[in-house]
Amino acid sequence: MNYFISNSNNPYYNLACEEYLLKNYDEDFFFLYINQDSLVVGKHQNTLAEINLDRVNEENIPVVRRLSGGGTVYHDFGNLNYCLIKKGEKGKLVDFKGYSSPIIQVLQKLGVNAKFEGKSDLTIDGKKFSGNASHVYKNKVLQHGTMLFSSDLKRLNHLLKVNPLKFKDRGVRSIRSRVTNISDYLSSPISISDFAAKVIHEFGLTYPNSNKFTFSDEDINAIENLKTDKFESWEWNFGYSPNYRFEKICNYHSGKILEIEMQIEKGVITEIDISGNCIKNEDFNLFLEKIKGSNHTNSLIYKKLNDIDLDLYFNKISSKELYQLFF
């Protein structure tokens, strides 16, 4: 078993590390990383249906899709993440309880009554501090999870709050659980780096003859390319979302009302219809045609609305007001 602690806090880079090691090495790995404030969505989720887009944009929060399924999670500097990559026998690769047991053992040694509960959760007093997910590749499994150590739980809720009535799709929805921080249960305070060292030590006891791993320059270049080409791309983080139907009604202070219905496939608006009491019916289809075929992404829609002479199609509505209808 090779082990290391990532020296990067970039969520795109660390998730690229996971995929690179899984697909390019035949060895087993265990590593830890801490990401800057970010949202990590499950592979089969509709990203826009999981996040509070306005707040994410306002605070410039990175959003990245991971390889594994499950729900959306919030990362910050108080959240320690682990990744285990292990070869095994097909059909017997997934073992949430077994692979996360060293984390339970560390906490019990620290006097914290941590438990494995449900399908893949680690809890303290019935509250989740670690959610886990896995991805099988050939004869290997990648299992990874969060460890809420001293995370900002209030901010977590603000960034993940979204109106579920806007979206109709078959994407996997996140199930919100009561969560807690490990640090609240420690009899003597320790830093997150000290906790990380204890976790690494415990995995070394579980997997004897472990070796500290260092990336080569070639590895780092390949990871950087994967980060740029895939994990930072709109196509992966948003366009990969399952097809969905978006519906919303906006009631403006001026008394204007607009309703929108859109079909989005692979992130692209394939159908759009807008109705309301401030539309100029003549040539309105021209406006819809200008929007149709666009990516359903905030920056592109905002630019398009600013580039269009809205007075040709609407009675006294600003691009800022109209933008609110699309998200």
Explain this structure to me?
The protein has 327 residues and is α+β, with helices and mostly antiparallel strands. Helices cover 32% and strands 27% of the residues. It is built from 11 helices and 15 strands. Helix 4 crosses helix 6 (192-206). The model has no long low-confidence stretch (mean pLDDT 92).
Give a quick set of tags describing it.
327 residues; alpha+beta; 8-stranded mixed sheet; 11 helices
Radius of gyration: 23 Å
Tally of contiguous helical segments: 11
Average per-residue pLDDT, rounded, comes to 92
Distance between the termini: 45 Å
Structural class: alpha+beta
Beta percentage is 25-35%
Give the number of DSSP strands: 15
- Please summarize the sheet with the most strands: 8 strands, mixed
The dominant shape is elongated
Q: Uncertain segments of ≥5 residues (pLDDT<50)?
A: none
Strand order of the largest sheet: 7-8-9-10-6-2-1-12
What string gives the helices and strands in order?
EHEEHHEEEHEEEEHEHEHHEEEHHH
Q: What percentage of residues falls in helices of 4 or more residues?
A: 25-40%
